[in-house]
Specification:
about 240 residues; about 40% helix; globular
Length: about 240
C-alpha cells in the first residue's frame, strides 16, 4: 500500500505532535505527515493562528481553483489546516493583521454550545485562501476549546468526571493543566501567557494515540476531524 502524503498547516510544532498522534489512530495505512507552516525555524509568516492566516493569504491565487492545484502542494493527497476554536474570540488587530479581507473576527456566537461558533470559524478560514478554494481533500481541524483539550482528555479524562463535563466549552483548560503537578503538566505560564512544554507533548504522544477512541467519544471536533480525514483519504 502506497504512502498517503499529508501536508499540515498548523499553529505550531506541538499541534503537529498531537495531529500526528491522532492520525496514527485514525489511518490504517502508512502516511507521511509534512509540516508546511510554521517553518522550522519560524520564517517571516510567524507561528500561531496569525501564521496560518498569513500562509493562507500567501497561497491564495486566482490561478488555482483549489489548494491541491497549487504547484507547492500538488504532491500531497490531503492538506490539513489546523486552528483552535479559541480563535473565534480573537480579532485580526490582536494578531497585528492589517490586510484582513472580510473583518470577520471575532466570530464567536451563542457560546456555549460551540456549534455556531465552530461553523462561523470554518467559514472564516475558508475565506482566507479566496479565490483559491478548499476541496474535498482539504481538512479543517478545529479542536475546541484548543488542541490541548484532546491531550487533557487522554491523560486525565477517565479519572476526572468534572473535567469531562462540557469539555469542549471549557475556556480554562490551560489553567486546569497548569494546576497539575510539575512532573506531569505540559503547560507553563510566562508573563501571563501559556507556554507549551514540547518535551512533554512528545512524552505523551503515544498516550493520545491509544486513547483516541475515548477522545472521539467525548469531543465532537475530534470525531469531525476523524470523519473528514477518512473521507479525504478515500478520494485519492
Amino acid at each position: 500500500m502506497s504512502n498517503l502524503y499529508i501536508g499540515l498547516v498548523s499553529e505550531g510544532p506541538t499541534d503537529t505532535i498531537i495531529i500526528q498522534s491522532a492520525l496514527q489512530a485514525i489511518l490504517d495505512h502508512p502516511f507521511v505527515l509534512s509540516p508546511i507552516q510554521p517553518e522550522s525555524p519560524p520564517g517571516q509568516l510567524g507561528a500561531g493562528w496569525s501564521g496560518v492566516y498569513r500562509w493562507c493569504r500567501q497561497i491564495a491565487s486566482p490561478n488555482y481553483y483549489s489548494l491541491l492545484q497549487h504547484p507547492s502542494l500538488m504532491l500531497f493527497n490531503i492538506i490539513i489546516i489546523q486552528v483552535d476554536a479559541d480563535v473565534a474570540f480573537s480579532s485580526y488587530s490582536s494578531a497585528n493583521i492589517c490586510d484582513n479581507i472580510n473583518n470577520d473576527l471575532p466570530c464567536a456566537e451563542d457560546w456555549p454550545p460551540i456549534t455556531r461558533s465552530i461553523e462561523n470559524l470554518k467559514l472564516t478560514i475558508s475565506k482566507w485562501t479566496h479565490p483559491t478554494n478548499h476541496d474535498k481533500k482539504t481538512v479543517l481541524c478545529i479542536p475546541s476549546y484548543c488542541i490541548e483539550t484532546w491531550l487533557a482528555v487522554a491523560l486525565f479524562g477517565k479519572s476526572d468526571p468534572i473535567l469531562m463535563s462540557n469539555i469542549e466549552q471549557n475556556t480554562n483548560i490551560y489553567n486546569y493543566i497548569y494546576a497539575k503537578s510539575k512532573t506531569i503538566r505540559f503547560i507553563r505560564f510566562k508573563d501571563g501567557k501559556p507556554k507549551k512544554i514540547k518535551s512533554k507533548y512528545i512524552e505523551y504522544k503515544d498516550r493520545l494515540t491509544s486513547e483516541w477512541n475515548y477522545i472521539t467519544r467525548h469531543c465532537t471536533q475530534a470525531i469531525d476531524f476523524q470523519n473528514h480525514i477518512l473521507f479525504a483519504a478515500s478520494q485519492r
